[in-house]
Amino acid sequence: MTAETVAPARRWDAAAVASLVLRRLRAIAAVVRPAAWVLVGSAILLWTGGAVMGWLELTVAALVLIALIALCALFVIGRTTYDVSLDLNRDRVVVGERAIGALTLSNPGTRAILPSRVVMPVGAGRGVFAVRRLAAGEAVEELFAIPTARRGVLQVGPVSVVRGDPLGLFERAHNRDEPVDLYVHPRTVLFEGNSLGFVRDLEGMPVTDLSSDDVSFHALREYQPGDDRRHVHWRSTARMGALMVRQYEETRRSHFVIALSRRPGDYGHADDFELAISAAGSLGLRALRDSRRVDVHVQGRALPAETGKRFLDSLSGLEPSRSREGDIVQLASSVAASAPLASVVVLVCGAGVGAAKLRDACARLPYGARVLAVVADTGASAALRRIGDADVVTIGALDQLPPALFKVLS
Question: Looking at the 3D structure of the chain, how many domains does it have?
Answer without folding.
Answer: 4
